[in-house]
């Protein structure tokens, strides 16, 4: 506004002269940056006297360049995966086990890192969807409904059973917590569950659980799955909360359960989450309480998280490795996952006959059927490129970003 008023009284020639001066200034600045950056690349002993004088003269540019370099270094450091040494890991897990024994109310927050062992890629790890796309590589993965609960999922389920964990809040849509046998009331799937479709025309809202990824045709602001409610014939929708959406479904998101759990928690254990999204949900971090009254925070993640500074302990290890050691320390047995105990098979509602051909996602098979896999179709379903559906959230964003670089 000020610049505009300033220009009002000027003649056309004067305005042009000013613009030209600005352009020249920019060009000079750019050249200075190039020049200084070139000199700074050299080792100090290799710089000539003339170059040293130049650096002295362009102190501002030198400072700006070193600030930029520092920012780049920080970013790089935050993306690096770190591993604690074997002994260090044991000591840290001992500390965590002791804290869990002392705690009254433990809440576990989980992210993509707990499912990578089940071949579901995460977003920000070195092989994550975003990282790969930013490097210009295609993202391929085997069918997501092939995955079974990991050792970490089974440990969490068991810790809940023996009352050492009171609630689980997950960002994952892969449904693996539910399939591990963790009861619904102890779980908040904040971003939805790929096996659940809903009828919001029914009252109360009707949940329909399927044995396949129901999100094949859904996307941001487009949630209809293409199937109809078995009761009222209303349109069924998925439960996925995409970037930029606010999840309103009571279940499976269970925000009420998550907020109550955080309120009561005296220990929060974060497993395999970058916490970049979770940190934005203020109610999960008891930010209204004074820092001293907030629950103690234990973070297991290979990469940096924005909550590292407020954590009591940060463990750099793979979730399965840490959980295995933790269960050993706590003296709690790790149950193995068994498809015949997977609750999804008794909860699922079969498709009507005319709907059976309406999706192309792989259907989960109970163990008995797995022993006789239909070889042809099974092999074809493997290694498909990431497309829409719940796994596509964030994908389109990264794709657009990449395009704009070219
Ligand atoms: Zn209905």
Automatic annotation (TrEMBL):
SUPFAM superfamilies in the cross-refs: DHS-like NAD/FAD-binding domain
InterPro entries: DHS-like_NAD/FAD-binding_dom, NAD-dep_sirtuin_deacylases, Sirtuin, Ssirtuin_cat_dom
Molecular function (Gene Ontology), one example: metal ion binding
Catalytic residue positions: 191
Amino acids binding Zn(2+): 199, 202, 229, 232
Known cofactor(s): Zn(2+)
Reactions the enzyme catalyzes: N(6)-decanoyl-L-lysyl-[protein] + NAD(+) + H2O = 2''-O-decanoyl-ADP-D-ribose + nicotinamide + L-lysyl-[protein]; N(6)-acetyl-L-lysyl-[protein] + NAD(+) + H2O = 2''-O-acetyl-ADP-D-ribose + nicotinamide + L-lysyl-[protein]; N(6)-propanoyl-L-lysyl-[protein] + NAD(+) + H2O = 3''-O-propanoyl-ADP-D-ribose + nicotinamide + L-lysyl-[protein]; N(6)-glutaryl-L-lysyl-[protein] + NAD(+) + H2O = 2''-O-glutaryl-ADP-D-ribose + nicotinamide + L-lysyl-[protein]
Deacetylase sirtuin-type domain boundaries: 86-333
The EC number(s) this enzyme carries: 2.3.1.286
Origin: domain of life: Eukaryota
EC main group: transferase
Cellular component terms per the entry's GO annotation: chromatin; nucleus; site of double-strand break
GO biological process entries: DNA repair-dependent chromatin remodeling; epigenetic regulation of gene expression; regulation of mitochondrion organization
The entry's keywords: Metal-binding, NAD, Phosphoprotein, Transferase, Zinc
Assembly, per entry: Interacts with UBTF and the RNA polymerase I complex. Interacts with components of the B-WICH complex, such as MYBBP1A, SMARCA5/SNF2H and BAZ1B/WSTF. Interacts with ELK4, leading to stabilization at target promoters for H3K18Ac deacetylation. Interacts with histone H2A and/or histone H2B. Interacts with DNMT1. Interacts with SIRT1.
Protein family membership: Belongs to the sirtuin family. Class IV subfamily.
PANTHER family to which the protein is assigned, alphabetical: NAD-DEPENDENT PROTEIN DEACETYLASE SIRTUIN-7 (PTHR11085:SF1), NAD-DEPENDENT PROTEIN DEACYLASE SIRTUIN-5, MITOCHONDRIAL-RELATED (PTHR11085)
Name of the protein in its database record: NAD-dependent protein deacetylase sirtuin-7
Gene: sirt7
């Amino acid at each position: 506004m000020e610049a505009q008023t300033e220009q009002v009284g000027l003649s056309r020639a004067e305005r042009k002269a000013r613009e030209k001066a600005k352009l020249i200034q920019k060009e000079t600045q750019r050249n200075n940056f190039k020049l200084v950056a070139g000199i700074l690349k050299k080792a100090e002993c290799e710089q000539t006297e003339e170059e040293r004088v130049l650096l002295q003269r362009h102190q501002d540019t030198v400072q700006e360049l070193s600030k930029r370099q520092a920012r780049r270094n920080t970013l790089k450091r935050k993306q690096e995966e770190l591993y604690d040494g074997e002994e260090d890991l044991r000591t840290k897990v001992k500390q965590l086990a002791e804290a869990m024994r002392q705690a009254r109310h433990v809440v576990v927050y989980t992210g993509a890192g707990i499912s990578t062992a089940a071949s579901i890629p995460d977003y920000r790890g070195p092989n994550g969807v975003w990282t790969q796309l930013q490097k210009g590589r295609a993202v391929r993965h085997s069918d997501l409904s092939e995955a079974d609960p990991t050792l970490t999922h089974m440990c969490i389920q068991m810790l809940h059973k023996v009352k050492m964990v009171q609630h689980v809040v997950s960002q994952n849509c892969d449904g693996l917590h539910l399939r591990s046998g963790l009861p619904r009331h102890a779980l908040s799937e904040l971003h939805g569950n790929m096996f659940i479709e809903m009828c919001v025309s029914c009252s109360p809202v009707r949940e329909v659980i399927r044995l396949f990824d129901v999100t094949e045709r859904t996307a941001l602001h487009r949630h209809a799955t293409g199937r109809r409610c078995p009761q009222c014939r209303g349109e069924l929708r998925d439960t996925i909360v995409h970037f930029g959406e606010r999840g309103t479904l009571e279940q499976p998101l269970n925000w009420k359960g998550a907020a109550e759990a955080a309120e009561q928690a005296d220990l929060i254990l974060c497993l395999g989450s970058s916490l970049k999204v979770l940190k934005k949900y203020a109610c999960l971090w008891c930010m209204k309480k004074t820092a001293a009254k907030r629950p103690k925070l234990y973070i297991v993640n290979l990469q940096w998280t924005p909550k590292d500074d407020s954590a009591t302990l940060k463990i750099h290890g793979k979730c399965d490795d840490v959980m295995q050691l933790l269960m050993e320390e706590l003296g709690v047995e790790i149950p193995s996952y068994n498809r015949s105990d997977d609750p999804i098979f008794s909860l699922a509602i079969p498709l009507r006959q005319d709907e059976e051909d309406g999706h192309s996602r792989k259907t989960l098979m109970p163990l008995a059927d797995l022993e006789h896999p239909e070889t042809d179709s099974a092999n074809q379903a493997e290694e498909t490129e990431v497309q829409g559906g719940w796994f596509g959230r964030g994908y389109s964003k990264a794709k657009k970003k990449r395009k704009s670089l070219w």
